[in-house]
Structure formats: structure tokens, C-alpha cells
Amino acid sequence: MSLVEVGRFGRPHGLAGEVYLDGCSLETEELLGIRTFTFRSARGEERPLELKEVHLANGRMLATFARCTTREQAARLTRGELLVEAERIPDPGPGVAYAFQVVGFELRDADGKALGTVHDVLNLAAHQVYVVRGEREYMVPVTPEIVRKVDMQARTITVELPVGLDQI
Questions:
Q1: pLDDT in tens, 28-46
Q2: What band does 11 get if pLDDT is binned at 50, 70 and 90?
Q3: Is residue 48 a contact partner of residue 97, using CB atoms and an 8 Å limit?
Q4: Is the pTM of this model over 0.85?
Q5: 159 - beta bridge partners?
């Protein structure tokens, strides 16, 4: 059973146990379809969580979990990870990949030169950003103009970097 991170817990919201989910790679309907998750604290302790409700509020996800009914209980989730077994995540569809699926992929430029390996995927307001580590670290915006091809079988991503990005 391979657990993958599908989100990170932010701060609590309100008094009734709601908590922000940051960097979530799933939609609200997908989360509700999965329903049961594993919580991993910043110290590495794990426990099961059952999702009761999730919705968008001001562009962020707010979630409520069973047996988490107070602000204090929600605060204990802060900085933790929301995990699920990889095989329970719905197929994203043809030509689409979840962020956790591309971590470890090799990033290459349009000429085939290896730039490094995707270490992390940041979910920013405008778009995702690949954190790529090789001889140096790159922050590569995930946009159609830059990401040209994702080969799931070869575990490679081909990009066309904007002029100057490799000089920063």
C-alpha cells in the first residue's frame, strides 16, 4: 500500500472544526468520493481521518472531518499531510497527471538536455510550479507554453524554458 500526499493542512477556520486544505491535487468531488484518508503529523505520526464535508471558500478548500468538531482539534491537524493510497485516486483522464505522479520525473529541455529531477510541485495562485533539482535548482512554471510533453512511461517532462530562466 503506497500512500501519496494529496494535500497539506493549513490553519483552522472558525470554531466548529473546519480546517484549510492547501496544495490539494484533487477536486472537492474526488475528495468526497474517497472519503477516508490518513493524516500524518509533522512528527510523522499517522492516524485515519474520515472526511465529512469539503467546499471552496475564497479560493481555498475548507474541510471538516469526523471527530474534529472544535477549533482546537482542527489546529492539531495544521502542518500535517493528507494521504491516501495511490490506487484509490481516480484516473485524471488522458493526457493529465496528478502532481504526485510527476515527482521523480526527469526534466529535459527541447534539445533533450537533462535539467534535473522534479523534486516537488508547488500549487500557486496562478499555476503550479515544478521544483527541479539537478546541477542547480529551477522553479519551472507549469503552463502550456513551457511544458511541452509529459511522457508517463519514460518518466520524462520536456520543457521549453523562457529565455533567461536558466540564467537565474
A1: 999 999 999 999 999 999 9
A2: very high
A3: no
A4: no
A5: 109, 147
Round to whole Å and give the CA distance between 108 and 23: 25
Quick one: average pLDDT of 126-141? 89
Helices (H) and strands (E) in the chain, counts: 3, 12
Identify the DSSP state of 69.
-
Structural domains present in the chain: 3-88 (2.40.30.60), 99-167 (2.30.30.240)
- 150 Cβ contact partners less than 8 Å away, ≥ 6 residues apart: 95, 97, 102, 105, 156, 157, 158
Is residue 99 a contact partner of residue 105, using CB atoms and an 8 Å limit?
Answer: no
DSSP 3-state percent helix, strand, coil across the chain (nearest 5) = 15, 45, 40
pLDDT of residue 9: 95
Average pLDDT over residues 85-114: 86
What whole-number distance in Å separates Cα of residue 81 and Cα of residue 152? 25
- Considering only CA atoms, which of 60, 92, 78, 86 is closest in space to residue 6? 86
Question: Cα separation of 67 and 125, whole Å?
Answer: 31
Are residues 3 and 13 in contact, defined by beta-carbon separation less than 8 angstroms? no
Judge whether 93 and 60 are in contact, CB under 8 Å: no
Residue 61: pLDDT above 70? yes
